[in-house]
Amino acid sequence: MKNEYPMVTHDRIEINPEVMLDKPVIRGTRITVEHILRRLSEGASAEELVAGHPRLDVRDISAAQAYAADYLANEEIVFA
Predict the structure, then answer these.
(1) What contacts 37, CB < 8 A, 6 or more positions away?
(2) Would you say residue 69 lies in a domain?
(3) What is the side-by-side order of every strand in the sheet holding 25-26?
(4) Is residue 63 part of a domain?
(5) DSSP of the chain, one letter per residue?
(6) Is residue 16 part of a domain?
(7) How confident is the model at residue 1 (pLDDT cuts 50, 70, 90)?
(8) How far is 35 from 53, CA to CA, in rounded Å?
(9) What would the pLDDT profile of 15-67 be if each residue is shown by its tens digit?
(10) Can you give the pLDDT at residue 4?
(11) Which residues are CB-contacts of 25 (< 8 A; sequence separation ≥ 6)?
(12) Residue 25 phi/psi, 5° resolution?
């Protein structure tokens, strides 16, 4: 079966080979889920992220976290 692009996952996340090399991004932006998660891990609040990226909404931050959690839930972990 052929992949259809852009692929939309969660309402606010999309994966499109023409945007950020197929990395999951907030739909309609070039802001990656990875960027959001890294900034949160550095201690930034959702409000700080929204203030720094006017196209973001607090719901986008939650969507990025949910996407990452769902992605990890489906990963197979192999211990060497």
Answers:
(1) 64, 65, 68
(2) yes
(3) 7-9, 13-15, 25-26
(4) yes
(5) -PPPSSEEETTTEEE-TTSGGG--EETTSS-BHHHHHHHHHTT--HHHHHHH-TT--HHHHHHHHHHHHHHHHTPPP---
(6) no
(7) very low
(8) 11
(9) 999 999 999 999 999 999 999 999 999 999 999 999 999 999 999 999 999 99
(10) 54
(11) 13, 14, 15, 16, 19, 31, 32, 33
(12) -130, 165
Look-up: residue for tokens 């060497």? 80
Distance CA 41, CA 18 (A): 27
Residue with tokens 């692929």: 7
Per the structure, the count of domains in the chain is 1
Q: Is the dihedral of CA 18, 3, 63, 75 positive or negative?
A: negative
Q: Tell me which residue has tokens 């907030």.
A: 26
Whether 61 is in a domain gets the answer: yes
